[in-house]
């Protein structure tokens, strides 16, 4: 999921809910959703790093571990109240960074 900007990252949450590990750019909302438990964030658009990460995730044990992490991570965003609380926490953290 290479991207220059990503507001929330709904497609990432949907992917995780399907137990699919995510490889994404370290931008916007993606960096608040994707972590080492469910995939990998990549700085920039290094095609070689994307390919290397893709093949690493295809290793059976790595895929199994990241798939389980993907489902658990997606559940943090599946509930509307929980989603709102998570979004508010992200928003408050962003405000702190500006002060």
Automatic annotation (TrEMBL):
<feature type="domain" description="Glycosyl transferase family 1">
    <location>
        <begin position="1"/>
        <end position="61"/>
    </location>
</feature>
<keyword id="KW-0808">Transferase</keyword>
<dbReference type="InterPro" id="IPR001296">
    <property type="entry name" value="Glyco_trans_1"/>
</dbReference>
<dbReference type="Pfam" id="PF00534">
    <property type="entry name" value="Glycos_transf_1"/>
</dbReference>
<dbReference type="GO" id="GO:0016757">
    <property type="term" value="F:glycosyltransferase activity"/>
</dbReference>
<protein>
    <submittedName>
        <fullName>Glycosyltransferase</fullName>
    </submittedName>
</protein>
């Amino acid at each position: 999921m290479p991207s220059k900007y990503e507001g929330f990252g709904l497609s990432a949450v949907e992917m995780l809910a399907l137990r699919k590990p995510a490889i994404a750019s370290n931008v916007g909302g993606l960096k608040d959703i994707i972590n080492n438990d469910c995939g990998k964030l990549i700085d920039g658009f290094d095609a070689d790093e994307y390919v290397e990460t893709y093949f690493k995730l295809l290793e059976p044990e790595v895929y199994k571990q990241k798939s389980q992490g993907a489902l658990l991570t997606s559940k943090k965003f599946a509930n509307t109240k929980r989603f709102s609380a998570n979004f508010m926490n992200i928003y408050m953290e962003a405000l702190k960074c500006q002060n």
